[in-house]
Write a structure and sequence with these properties.
Number of strands: 2
Radius of gyration: 15 Å
Order of helices and strands: HEEHH
Helix content: 25-40%
Distance between the termini: 36 Å
Amino acid sequence: MAVFGTERVWAENQEILHHPDGSATLKFMAEGYQEIRNWILSFGSLATVLEPIELADSIRHEAEAILQKPIPSEEDP
């Protein structure tokens, strides 16, 4: 996500910190909790939420819920 996340302007107040390992931290203030949560989830394992903790916990719980879903077999309709 480092390259993808830094290729465009996501918010007027964004800050991008590039790290030696090639990753990047994208920081910005946003409104619309559900929209931001869904946007982060769209990146899958490429995204890590550092703050706010409540959002990071929500993302983690959603990922855990996804893992609990049964995997359908080819025999399922």
